[in-house]
Amino acid sequence: MIYVVIVFLWLALLLYLVMGGADYGAGIIELFTSDANKSRTRRIMYNAIGPIWEANHMWLIIAIVILFVGFPVIYTTMSTYLHIPLVVMLMGIIARGTALTFRSYDAVRDDMQKVYNKVFVYSSFVTPLFLGIIAGSAVSGRIDPGANDFLHAYVLSWLNWFSVAIGFFTVALCGFLAAIYLIGEATDHPSRKSFIRKARIMNLAAFVAGAMVFIAAIIEKIPLVQWVFGNIIGIAAVSAASISLVVLWYLISRGKRYIIRVLAGFQVTMILLTTTYKHYPNIVILKGGGYLSLLENRGAEKAIESLAIALLIGGLFILPALGYLIYSFQKKGQDIEGH
């Protein structure tokens, strides 16, 4: 049963990165859009993220519940030593959702709309930034359970070049995902051309940020190169991601709009596989060479068994419901366009 729980944890993180990442990326795209084009970008963005933006955080909640119930030591360690970036990320999620709701459905249209817009776009940037920082901190080896002062225990555990570089890579990746998804939602050539240009920019930004991650890893003596290229799975995943990127841009040039979304999601899957395979089952690497393992630091067997059963049963309801939700919004959009 433990492997069922681990698979669900990995899938929850993947789906949050792919679907939630594109959601955050829509705000990032808007942040770097000129004022003249913001209104058009928002309209297309609503059609793209409408079906899933409220459902995205379900995957994050599932991941948190899995850690809380199935791996309490790991949950406690991360929520203690990374509580600052976790609080910032959660505040960003709340601010973003609130701003999007009020700017979309507020009965009064006044200057507060400008405030809502700014809160939305900046929280869309900050939230994935700190999500990446948290992920980087978990494997950076900077979390120090033996620290005896606030700075080393709760600040330097996440405030380092490697974690921050991963944060910016996450932001660029979210922007790239959103741009690719928005290409498929654009119904006119100028909008499609604009999103293709933004996808190129975000692709370049992700490449630069990725290079920064490797440079920071070398400087801070984190064996990222070995994790990625020191095994056949990592090499195969990197190769597959690179090939799919070339195919993606070829299909974009051929005017394909929907298969490119699958390829973008596939690339994110390969990135996550590359960065998690080598040090599995160690999910948290501590300062001094210690680690927290999904196998060694799991909860009681009864808790794991109950959690696995709940996840399996829940999956039977959640996934079909989510599929129908997306289908319903797409159908509604097609009906509106038809009229």
TrEMBL record:
Single biological process term from Gene Ontology: aerobic electron transport chain
Compartments reported by the entry: Cell membrane
Positions of transmembrane segments: 6-32, 53-75, 81-99, 119-139, 159-183, 204-222, 228-251, 258-277, 307-327
Record GO cellular component, one term: cytochrome complex
Recorded topology in the membrane: Multi-pass membrane protein
Sample GO molecular function, one term: electron transfer activity
Key word Transmembrane present: yes
Keywords: Cell membrane, Membrane, Transmembrane, Transmembrane helix
Pfam families noted in UniProt: Cyt_bd_oxida_II (PF02322)
PANTHER family found in the cross-reference section: CYTOCHROME BD2 SUBUNIT II
Family per similarity comment: Belongs to the cytochrome ubiquinol oxidase subunit 2 family.
Name of the protein this chain belongs to: Cytochrome d ubiquinol oxidase subunit II
Record organism: Mucilaginibacter terrenus
